[in-house]
Amino acid sequence: MKKVFMIVLMCMLTVVFLAVSAEKGFSATKYSVFCANGKVEVDSRTLTQMKTARGSGTCIIKSFDNKMDADKSAKSVGGVGASCKCK
Predict the structure, then answer these.
(1) Judging by DSSP bridges, how do beta strands 31-36 and 39-43 pair with one another?
(2) Region 56-67: what's the mean pLDDT?
(3) pLDDT at 85
(4) What average pLDDT does this structure show over 4-32?
(5) What is the DSSP string of the chain?
(6) pLDDT of residue 6
């Protein structure tokens, strides 16, 4: 009986955690606006991954929890493909 109770309790806690996470908008994927080789890019890769792919002249301009906000931010600095500089 104790095992069944523990399993039910664990399931309930998991459901509550997932519901709270979804409500707060927790997401493992981050989207960043990068300056890579002098051009604006939006990508979900980490800075390390982008530096490996694009070279050491890569920096993060700003990071977001969703792609829509990253795309809006990229537009505000000239859009994807626009010129940029890492500081």
Answers:
(1) antiparallel
(2) 96
(3) 96
(4) 61
(5) -HHHHHHHHHHHHHHHHHHHHHHHT--S--EEEEEETTEEEEESS-HHHHHHHH-SSEEEEEEESSHHHHHHHHHHTT-TT-B----
(6) 54
